[in-house]
Protein backbone atom coordinates (compact mmCIF):
# COMPACT_ATOMS: atom_id res chain seq x y z
CA UNK A 1 0.00 0.00 0.00
CA UNK A 2 2.73 2.32 0.98
CA UNK A 3 4.43 1.50 -2.28
CA UNK A 4 1.36 2.52 -4.34
CA UNK A 5 1.14 5.89 -2.54
CA UNK A 6 4.75 6.66 -3.39
CA UNK A 7 4.24 5.75 -7.07
CA UNK A 8 1.11 7.95 -7.28
CA UNK A 9 2.95 10.88 -5.67
CA UNK A 10 5.88 10.55 -8.10
CA UNK A 11 3.46 10.44 -11.08
CA UNK A 12 1.64 13.57 -9.84
CA UNK A 13 4.93 15.48 -9.31
CA UNK A 14 6.28 14.48 -12.76
CA UNK A 15 2.97 15.44 -14.40
CA UNK A 16 3.02 18.86 -12.75
CA UNK A 17 6.66 19.43 -13.80
CA UNK A 18 5.87 18.42 -17.41
CA UNK A 19 2.90 20.81 -17.51
CA UNK A 20 5.04 23.71 -16.12
CA UNK A 21 7.61 23.06 -18.82
CA UNK A 22 5.20 22.76 -21.77
CA UNK A 23 2.69 25.60 -21.20
CA UNK A 24 5.16 28.60 -21.24
CA UNK A 25 6.92 27.16 -24.30
CA UNK A 26 3.71 27.05 -26.20
CA UNK A 27 2.93 30.63 -25.14
CA UNK A 28 6.39 31.83 -26.25
CA UNK A 29 5.89 30.20 -29.63
CA UNK A 30 2.67 32.15 -30.32
CA UNK A 31 3.09 34.73 -33.22
CA UNK A 32 1.45 38.07 -32.27
CA UNK A 33 -0.82 39.51 -34.91
CA UNK A 34 0.90 42.59 -36.58
CA UNK A 35 -0.54 46.00 -35.53
CA UNK A 36 -2.72 47.76 -38.09
CA UNK A 37 -0.59 49.99 -40.33
CA UNK A 38 -1.46 53.64 -40.99
CA UNK A 39 -1.79 54.36 -44.65
CA UNK A 40 -2.29 50.64 -45.43
CA UNK A 41 -4.86 49.25 -43.03
CA UNK A 42 -6.52 52.51 -42.17
CA UNK A 43 -6.47 56.24 -43.01
CA UNK A 44 -3.59 57.86 -40.96
CA UNK A 45 -4.62 60.33 -38.28
CA UNK A 46 -3.03 62.62 -35.67
CA UNK A 47 0.05 60.97 -34.07
CA UNK A 48 0.51 58.37 -36.84
CA UNK A 49 3.80 58.07 -38.66
CA UNK A 50 3.85 60.53 -41.53
CA UNK A 51 6.08 58.53 -43.85
CA UNK A 52 4.39 56.12 -46.11
CA UNK A 53 5.28 52.51 -45.23
CA UNK A 54 7.05 50.46 -47.87
CA UNK A 55 3.88 48.57 -48.50
CA UNK A 56 2.13 51.79 -49.54
CA UNK A 57 1.22 51.99 -53.21
CA UNK A 58 4.18 53.49 -55.14
CA UNK A 59 3.98 56.68 -57.25
CA UNK A 60 4.36 55.57 -60.85
CA UNK A 61 7.34 56.86 -62.87
CA UNK A 62 6.31 59.61 -65.24
CA UNK A 63 8.12 61.03 -68.24
CA UNK A 64 9.02 64.70 -67.85
CA UNK A 65 9.49 66.93 -70.88
CA UNK A 66 12.87 68.72 -70.82
CA UNK A 67 13.15 72.27 -72.23
CA UNK A 68 14.63 72.28 -75.71
CA UNK A 69 17.43 74.86 -75.20
CA UNK A 70 19.49 75.11 -71.99
CA UNK A 71 18.52 78.11 -69.87
CA UNK A 72 20.72 81.24 -70.33
CA UNK A 73 23.08 81.86 -67.39
CA UNK A 74 21.66 84.48 -65.02
CA UNK A 75 23.76 87.68 -65.16
CA UNK A 76 24.49 89.16 -61.70
CA UNK A 77 22.50 92.37 -61.42
CA UNK A 78 24.62 95.56 -61.63
CA UNK A 79 24.29 97.60 -58.43
CA UNK A 80 21.77 100.39 -58.88
CA UNK A 81 23.36 103.78 -59.44
CA UNK A 82 22.82 106.33 -56.74
CA UNK A 83 20.95 109.52 -57.44
CA UNK A 84 22.94 112.29 -55.74
CA UNK A 85 21.17 115.17 -54.11
CA UNK A 86 21.00 118.36 -56.24
CA UNK A 87 23.66 120.90 -55.25
CA UNK A 88 21.39 123.94 -55.12
CA UNK A 89 20.42 124.89 -51.58
CA UNK A 90 22.68 122.30 -49.98
CA UNK A 91 24.29 124.83 -47.66
CA UNK A 92 20.83 125.71 -46.41
CA UNK A 93 20.28 122.01 -45.61
CA UNK A 94 23.66 121.82 -43.91
CA UNK A 95 23.24 125.14 -42.08
CA UNK A 96 22.21 123.50 -38.84
CA UNK A 97 25.46 121.51 -38.90
CA UNK A 98 27.39 124.71 -39.47
CA UNK A 99 25.44 126.47 -36.73
CA UNK A 100 26.18 123.62 -34.30
CA UNK A 101 29.91 123.76 -34.92
CA UNK A 102 30.15 127.56 -34.92
CA UNK A 103 27.69 128.18 -32.08
CA UNK A 104 30.41 129.24 -29.61
CA UNK A 105 31.73 131.82 -32.04
CA UNK A 106 28.39 133.29 -33.18
CA UNK A 107 26.53 133.21 -29.87
CA UNK A 108 29.56 134.57 -28.00
CA UNK A 109 29.80 137.56 -30.32
CA UNK A 110 26.08 138.27 -30.15
CA UNK A 111 25.94 138.22 -26.37
CA UNK A 112 28.97 140.50 -26.11
CA UNK A 113 27.52 142.99 -28.59
CA UNK A 114 24.17 142.95 -26.79
CA UNK A 115 25.67 144.11 -23.49
CA UNK A 116 24.29 147.35 -22.10
CA UNK A 117 27.68 148.94 -21.86
CA UNK A 118 30.19 148.30 -24.63
CA UNK A 119 33.35 149.26 -22.75
CA UNK A 120 36.97 148.64 -23.79
CA UNK A 121 37.00 145.34 -21.99
CA UNK A 122 33.99 144.13 -24.00
CA UNK A 123 35.61 145.19 -27.26
CA UNK A 124 38.72 143.28 -26.28
CA UNK A 125 36.62 140.20 -25.62
CA UNK A 126 34.99 140.60 -29.04
CA UNK A 127 38.45 140.84 -30.59
CA UNK A 128 39.62 137.69 -28.78
CA UNK A 129 36.54 135.78 -29.92
CA UNK A 130 37.22 136.70 -33.54
CA UNK A 131 40.89 135.78 -33.30
CA UNK A 132 40.04 132.44 -31.68
CA UNK A 133 37.73 131.72 -34.62
CA UNK A 134 40.72 132.13 -36.96
CA UNK A 135 39.48 135.28 -38.64
CA UNK A 136 43.03 136.59 -38.77
CA UNK A 137 44.57 139.69 -37.25
CA UNK A 138 43.87 142.27 -39.97
CA UNK A 139 40.25 141.25 -40.67
CA UNK A 140 39.62 141.15 -36.90
CA UNK A 141 40.92 144.68 -36.39
CA UNK A 142 38.91 145.94 -39.36
CA UNK A 143 35.73 144.30 -38.12
CA UNK A 144 36.08 145.56 -34.56
CA UNK A 145 36.72 149.06 -35.86
CA UNK A 146 33.61 149.03 -38.03
CA UNK A 147 31.44 147.60 -35.27
CA UNK A 148 32.70 150.21 -32.80
CA UNK A 149 31.98 153.04 -35.19
CA UNK A 150 28.51 151.83 -36.05
CA UNK A 151 27.65 151.08 -32.43
CA UNK A 152 28.65 154.63 -31.51
CA UNK A 153 26.83 156.27 -34.43
CA UNK A 154 23.73 154.10 -34.74
CA UNK A 155 23.54 152.65 -31.22
CA UNK A 156 22.60 149.05 -30.45
CA UNK A 157 19.21 149.08 -28.73
CA UNK A 158 18.50 145.38 -28.44
CA UNK A 159 19.81 141.91 -29.34
CA UNK A 160 18.03 142.05 -32.72
CA UNK A 161 19.88 145.23 -33.61
CA UNK A 162 23.16 143.59 -32.50
CA UNK A 163 22.42 140.63 -34.74
CA UNK A 164 21.57 142.79 -37.78
CA UNK A 165 24.73 144.83 -37.34
CA UNK A 166 26.98 141.81 -36.92
CA UNK A 167 25.37 140.00 -39.84
CA UNK A 168 25.95 142.93 -42.19
CA UNK A 169 29.57 143.36 -41.16
CA UNK A 170 30.45 139.64 -41.27
CA UNK A 171 28.81 139.35 -44.68
CA UNK A 172 30.88 142.27 -45.98
CA UNK A 173 34.04 140.49 -44.80
CA UNK A 174 33.08 137.16 -46.38
CA UNK A 175 32.29 139.15 -49.54
CA UNK A 176 29.17 137.97 -51.37
CA UNK A 177 30.37 139.70 -54.55
CA UNK A 178 33.15 137.15 -55.22
CA UNK A 179 32.59 134.84 -58.18
CA UNK A 180 32.32 131.40 -56.61
CA UNK A 181 31.04 129.54 -59.65
CA UNK A 182 33.03 126.42 -60.56
CA UNK A 183 34.29 126.49 -64.12
CA UNK A 184 32.99 123.12 -65.19
CA UNK A 185 31.52 123.91 -68.61
CA UNK A 186 32.77 122.08 -71.66
CA UNK A 187 34.76 124.31 -74.04
CA UNK A 188 32.44 125.04 -76.90
CA UNK A 189 35.17 126.21 -79.29
CA UNK A 190 37.07 122.90 -79.39
CA UNK A 191 34.75 120.51 -77.50
CA UNK A 192 37.33 119.93 -74.76
CA UNK A 193 36.06 119.03 -71.30
CA UNK A 194 36.64 121.40 -68.41
CA UNK A 195 39.56 120.19 -66.28
CA UNK A 196 39.59 120.53 -62.50
CA UNK A 197 42.80 119.74 -60.62
CA UNK A 198 42.45 119.06 -56.89
CA UNK A 199 45.51 119.67 -54.68
CA UNK A 200 46.44 119.92 -51.00
CA UNK A 201 48.40 118.37 -48.15
CA UNK A 202 47.84 114.82 -46.87
CA UNK A 203 44.54 113.95 -45.30
CA UNK A 204 42.74 117.22 -45.93
CA UNK A 205 40.00 115.39 -47.81
CA UNK A 206 41.05 115.68 -51.48
CA UNK A 207 39.90 112.25 -52.62
CA UNK A 208 36.66 112.56 -50.69
CA UNK A 209 36.12 116.01 -52.21
CA UNK A 210 36.70 114.73 -55.76
CA UNK A 211 34.18 111.94 -55.10
CA UNK A 212 31.62 114.33 -53.64
CA UNK A 213 32.18 116.85 -56.43
CA UNK A 214 31.58 114.14 -59.03
CA UNK A 215 28.19 113.61 -57.38
CA UNK A 216 27.41 117.34 -57.49
CA UNK A 217 28.16 117.33 -61.23
CA UNK A 218 26.23 114.12 -61.91
CA UNK A 219 23.26 115.67 -60.10
CA UNK A 220 23.52 118.49 -62.66
CA UNK A 221 23.47 115.92 -65.49
CA UNK A 222 27.11 116.46 -66.43
CA UNK A 223 29.26 113.68 -67.86
CA UNK A 224 32.37 113.22 -65.75
CA UNK A 225 35.68 111.30 -65.88
CA UNK A 226 37.86 110.95 -62.79
CA UNK A 227 41.66 110.81 -62.86
CA UNK A 228 43.35 109.03 -59.94
CA UNK A 229 46.71 110.78 -60.10
CA UNK A 230 47.40 109.90 -56.46
CA UNK A 231 49.70 107.03 -57.36
CA UNK A 232 51.47 107.00 -53.98
CA UNK A 233 48.59 105.51 -52.08
CA UNK A 234 47.03 102.52 -53.88
CA UNK A 235 43.98 102.83 -51.64
CA UNK A 236 43.37 106.36 -52.94
CA UNK A 237 42.73 105.07 -56.48
CA UNK A 238 40.45 102.33 -55.11
CA UNK A 239 38.64 104.89 -52.97
CA UNK A 240 38.13 107.18 -55.98
CA UNK A 241 36.98 104.31 -58.21
CA UNK A 242 34.37 103.38 -55.60
CA UNK A 243 33.09 106.96 -55.51
CA UNK A 244 32.86 106.95 -59.32
CA UNK A 245 31.19 103.53 -59.56
CA UNK A 246 28.41 104.63 -57.24
CA UNK A 247 27.26 107.25 -59.73
CA UNK A 248 28.34 105.56 -62.98
CA UNK A 249 31.48 107.65 -63.52
CA UNK A 250 34.65 106.13 -65.05
CA UNK A 251 37.97 106.46 -63.17
CA UNK A 252 41.27 106.47 -65.09
CA UNK A 253 44.09 105.06 -62.97
CA UNK A 254 47.69 103.99 -63.43
CA UNK A 255 50.08 101.54 -61.80
CA UNK A 256 50.88 102.07 -58.12
CA UNK A 257 53.95 104.28 -57.82
CA UNK A 258 53.57 105.30 -61.50
CA UNK A 259 53.99 108.80 -62.87
CA UNK A 260 51.07 110.93 -61.63
CA UNK A 261 51.47 113.36 -64.54
CA UNK A 262 50.96 110.54 -67.02
CA UNK A 263 47.78 109.36 -65.25
CA UNK A 264 46.46 112.93 -65.24
CA UNK A 265 47.30 113.26 -68.96
CA UNK A 266 45.53 109.96 -69.76
CA UNK A 267 42.47 110.98 -67.75
CA UNK A 268 42.08 114.20 -69.72
CA UNK A 269 42.70 112.29 -72.97
CA UNK A 270 39.94 109.83 -72.02
CA UNK A 271 37.67 112.76 -71.19
CA UNK A 272 38.29 114.29 -74.64
CA UNK A 273 37.71 110.96 -76.41
CA UNK A 274 34.56 110.22 -74.44
CA UNK A 275 33.34 113.79 -74.98
CA UNK A 276 32.52 114.34 -71.34
CA UNK A 277 31.86 117.72 -69.74
CA UNK A 278 34.36 117.61 -66.89
CA UNK A 279 37.53 115.75 -65.89
CA UNK A 280 38.33 115.84 -62.17
CA UNK A 281 41.93 114.99 -61.31
CA UNK A 282 42.83 113.89 -57.76
CA UNK A 283 46.47 114.29 -56.71
CA UNK A 284 48.54 112.82 -53.91
CA UNK A 285 48.76 114.74 -50.66
CA UNK A 286 52.03 116.59 -50.30
CA UNK A 287 53.49 118.78 -47.63
CA UNK A 288 54.11 122.28 -48.80
CA UNK A 289 57.63 122.00 -47.36
CA UNK A 290 58.68 119.13 -49.67
CA UNK A 291 60.22 120.90 -52.62
CA UNK A 292 60.49 117.77 -54.82
CA UNK A 293 56.81 116.94 -54.37
CA UNK A 294 55.72 120.49 -54.99
CA UNK A 295 57.77 120.50 -58.23
CA UNK A 296 56.05 117.29 -59.21
CA UNK A 297 52.68 118.98 -58.75
CA UNK A 298 53.78 121.77 -61.08
CA UNK A 299 54.70 119.07 -63.61
CA UNK A 300 51.28 117.39 -63.31
CA UNK A 301 49.65 120.68 -64.22
CA UNK A 302 52.04 121.41 -67.11
CA UNK A 303 51.55 117.94 -68.59
CA UNK A 304 47.74 118.22 -68.41
CA UNK A 305 48.04 121.58 -70.16
CA UNK A 306 49.40 119.86 -73.27
CA UNK A 307 45.69 119.22 -73.91
CA UNK A 308 44.73 122.82 -73.07
CA UNK A 309 44.54 125.08 -70.00
CA UNK A 310 43.35 123.73 -66.66
CA UNK A 311 40.05 125.42 -65.77
CA UNK A 312 40.11 125.12 -61.99
CA UNK A 313 42.80 124.36 -59.46
CA UNK A 314 41.02 123.67 -56.19
CA UNK A 315 43.09 123.78 -53.02
CA UNK A 316 41.59 121.59 -50.33
CA UNK A 317 42.21 122.90 -46.81
CA UNK A 318 41.20 121.21 -43.58
CA UNK A 319 39.39 123.91 -41.55
CA UNK A 320 40.43 122.24 -38.29
CA UNK A 321 44.11 122.97 -38.93
CA UNK A 322 43.54 126.73 -38.61
CA UNK A 323 46.42 129.05 -39.32
CA UNK A 324 48.55 126.23 -40.73
CA UNK A 325 46.10 126.19 -43.64
CA UNK A 326 47.15 129.72 -44.52
CA UNK A 327 50.79 128.70 -44.86
CA UNK A 328 49.74 125.82 -47.13
CA UNK A 329 47.59 128.17 -49.17
CA UNK A 330 50.50 130.52 -49.75
CA UNK A 331 52.94 127.83 -50.94
CA UNK A 332 50.45 125.92 -53.12
CA UNK A 333 49.33 129.21 -54.62
CA UNK A 334 52.90 129.89 -55.75
CA UNK A 335 53.23 126.51 -57.48
CA UNK A 336 49.89 125.98 -59.19
CA UNK A 337 47.80 129.18 -59.41
CA UNK A 338 44.93 128.18 -57.18
CA UNK A 339 41.54 129.34 -58.50
CA UNK A 340 39.30 128.22 -55.64
CA UNK A 341 39.39 126.88 -52.11
CA UNK A 342 37.54 123.91 -50.68
CA UNK A 343 37.30 124.13 -46.90
CA UNK A 344 36.64 120.67 -45.50
CA UNK A 345 35.66 119.53 -42.00
CA UNK A 346 33.92 122.79 -41.11
CA UNK A 347 31.51 120.56 -39.19
CA UNK A 348 34.31 119.71 -36.78
CA UNK A 349 35.61 123.12 -35.80
CA UNK A 350 34.38 126.43 -34.43
CA UNK A 351 37.00 128.27 -36.48
CA UNK A 352 34.74 129.42 -39.31
CA UNK A 353 36.71 132.68 -39.50
CA UNK A 354 39.24 130.77 -41.61
CA UNK A 355 36.97 131.40 -44.63
CA UNK A 356 37.78 135.10 -44.48
CA UNK A 357 41.42 134.61 -43.58
CA UNK A 358 42.17 132.23 -46.42
CA UNK A 359 40.34 134.29 -49.04
CA UNK A 360 42.45 137.26 -47.99
CA UNK A 361 45.66 135.25 -47.99
CA UNK A 362 45.20 133.84 -51.48
CA UNK A 363 42.92 136.41 -53.03
CA UNK A 364 40.70 133.59 -54.31
CA UNK A 365 37.23 132.64 -53.09
CA UNK A 366 36.12 129.68 -51.04
CA UNK A 367 34.00 127.80 -53.57
CA UNK A 368 32.98 124.68 -51.68
CA UNK A 369 32.70 123.64 -48.05
CA UNK A 370 32.72 120.16 -46.53
CA UNK A 371 30.31 119.73 -43.65
CA UNK A 372 30.45 116.01 -42.96
CA UNK A 373 31.53 112.60 -44.14
CA UNK A 374 28.29 111.78 -45.97
CA UNK A 375 28.46 111.55 -49.78
CA UNK A 376 26.36 114.69 -50.25
CA UNK A 377 27.90 116.74 -47.44
CA UNK A 378 29.82 119.03 -49.78
CA UNK A 379 28.08 122.30 -50.52
CA UNK A 380 28.71 125.18 -52.92
CA UNK A 381 29.70 128.06 -50.67
CA UNK A 382 27.05 130.71 -50.16
CA UNK A 383 28.09 133.79 -48.16
CA UNK A 384 24.65 134.56 -46.70
CA UNK A 385 23.86 130.99 -45.67
CA UNK A 386 27.33 130.79 -44.15
CA UNK A 387 26.96 133.95 -42.04
CA UNK A 388 23.46 132.93 -40.96
CA UNK A 389 24.90 129.54 -39.95
CA UNK A 390 27.55 131.25 -37.84
CA UNK A 391 24.98 133.42 -36.09
CA UNK A 392 22.72 130.42 -35.47
N1 LIG B 1 33.91 115.47 -40.78
C1 LIG B 1 34.36 115.60 -42.02
N2 LIG B 1 35.26 114.72 -42.49
C2 LIG B 1 35.71 114.86 -43.76
C3 LIG B 1 35.26 115.92 -44.58
N3 LIG B 1 35.91 115.82 -45.78
C4 LIG B 1 36.72 114.73 -45.70
N4 LIG B 1 36.61 114.14 -44.48
C5 LIG B 1 37.32 112.96 -43.97
O1 LIG B 1 38.71 113.19 -43.99
C6 LIG B 1 39.41 111.97 -44.13
C7 LIG B 1 40.52 112.12 -45.17
O2 LIG B 1 39.92 112.24 -46.43
P1 LIG B 1 40.65 111.82 -47.79
O3 LIG B 1 39.75 112.24 -48.89
O4 LIG B 1 41.11 110.43 -47.78
O5 LIG B 1 41.92 112.77 -47.73
P2 LIG B 1 43.07 112.99 -48.82
O6 LIG B 1 43.41 114.42 -48.77
O7 LIG B 1 42.68 112.44 -50.13
O8 LIG B 1 44.22 112.12 -48.18
P3 LIG B 1 45.68 111.76 -48.85
O9 LIG B 1 45.40 111.02 -50.11
O10 LIG B 1 46.33 110.94 -47.80
O11 LIG B 1 46.37 113.03 -49.06
C8 LIG B 1 38.35 110.93 -44.47
O12 LIG B 1 38.07 110.19 -43.32
C9 LIG B 1 37.15 111.76 -44.88
O13 LIG B 1 35.92 111.11 -44.63
C10 LIG B 1 34.31 116.86 -44.04
O14 LIG B 1 33.89 117.83 -44.66
N5 LIG B 1 33.89 116.63 -42.75
Automatic annotation (TrEMBL):
Residue ranges of domain SRP54-type proteins GTP-binding in the record: 365-378
Entry-linked SMART domains: AAA, SRP54, SRP54_N
GO cellular component: cytoplasm; plasma membrane
Keywords recorded for this protein, A-Z: Cell membrane, Cytoplasm, GTP-binding, Hydrolase, Membrane, Nucleotide-binding, Receptor
GO biological process: SRP-dependent cotranslational protein targeting to membrane
Keyword tRNA-binding found: no
Membrane topology category: Peripheral membrane protein
Signal peptide range: none
PANTHER family: SIGNAL RECOGNITION PARTICLE RECEPTOR SUBUNIT ALPHA (PTHR43134:SF1)
Function: Involved in targeting and insertion of nascent membrane proteins into the cytoplasmic membrane. Acts as a receptor for the complex formed by the signal recognition particle (SRP) and the ribosome-nascent chain (RNC).
Name of the protein described by the UniProt record: Signal recognition particle receptor FtsY
Species of the source: Jiangella anatolica
Name of the encoding gene: ftsY
Amino acid sequence: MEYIVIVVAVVVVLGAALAAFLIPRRRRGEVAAPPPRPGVDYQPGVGDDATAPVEAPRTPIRDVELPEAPLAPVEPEAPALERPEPAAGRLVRLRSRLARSQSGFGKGLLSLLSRERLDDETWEEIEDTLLTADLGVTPTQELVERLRTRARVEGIQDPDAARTLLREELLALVDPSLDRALRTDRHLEDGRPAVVLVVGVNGTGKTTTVGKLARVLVAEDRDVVLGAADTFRAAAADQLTTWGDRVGVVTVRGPEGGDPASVAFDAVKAGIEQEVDVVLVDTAGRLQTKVGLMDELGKVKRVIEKHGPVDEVLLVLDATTGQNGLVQARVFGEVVDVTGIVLTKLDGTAKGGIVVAVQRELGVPVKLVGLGEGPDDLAPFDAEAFVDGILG
